[in-house]
């Protein structure tokens, strides 16, 4: 059993929008920061976005700022990532993670990780 399960990925065209969701199974999120990361073949894992308790302290990578929006719904143990204006450079496996703070998540540290959902953007 995987505590964090991502969904919403798929094959899309450049310029499309996709909304990813991460649902916790038997794992509480309300007292933790949550983050999204991505990893493309041949590239290092990259921080994408993070959000603190009740939507405070939001952080974005420069590459996605203005295009992606992270949000959380603690009552449903869910964190989402709205991705707009997608380009082929956004193609990657997207993973969510729970962490102690948005700062720690922005540096790549999390205590629990999902297995990821694949987003492939064609041109």
Describe this protein's structure.
With 123 residues, the protein is mainly β. It is built from one helix and eleven strands; from the N terminus they run βββββββββαββ. It has one helix at 102-106; strands spanning 4-7, 10-13, 18-24, 33-39, 46-51, 59-60, 68-73, 78-83, 92-99, 112-113, 117-122. A hairpin with a 4-residue loop joins β7 and β8 (78-83). The longest helix has 5 residues, at 102-106. The mean pLDDT is 95.
Label the structural class.
mainly beta
Q: Taking Cα atoms only, what radius of gyration do you get, to the nearest Å?
A: 13 Å
What gross morphology would you assign? globular
Helix content: under 10%
Strand content: over 45%
How many H/I helical runs? 1
Unreliable sequence segments: none
Helix/strand order: EEEEEEEEEHEE
The profile of the biggest β sheet is: 7 strands, mixed
What's the total number of strands?
Answer: 11
pLDDT average, as an integer?
95
- Distance from N terminus to C terminus (CA atoms, Å) equals 36 Å
Using brief descriptors, characterize the structure shown.
123 residues, mainly beta, 7-stranded mixed sheet, 4-stranded antiparallel sheet, 1 helix, 47% strand
Tell me the layout of helices and strands.
Layout: E1 4-7, E2 10-13, E3 18-24, E4 33-39, E5 46-51, E6 59-60, E7 68-73, E8 78-83, E9 92-99, H1 102-106, E10 112-113, E11 117-122
């Amino acid at each position: 059993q995987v505590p964090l399960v991502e969904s919403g990925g798929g094959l899309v065209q450049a310029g499309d929008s996709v909304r990813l969701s991460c649902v916790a199974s038997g794992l509480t999120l309300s007292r933790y920061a949550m983050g999204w990361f991505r990893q493309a073949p041949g590239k290092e894992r990259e921080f994408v976005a993070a959000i603190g308790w009740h939507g405070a302290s939001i952080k974005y990578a420069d590459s996605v700022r203005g295009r992606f929006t992270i949000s959380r719904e603690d009552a449903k143990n869910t964190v989402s990532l709205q991705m707009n204006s997608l380009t082929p450079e956004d193609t990657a496996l997207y993973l969510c993670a729970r962490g102690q703070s948005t700062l720690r998540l922005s540096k790549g540290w999390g205590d629990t990780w999902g297995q990821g959902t694949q987003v492939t953007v064609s041109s």
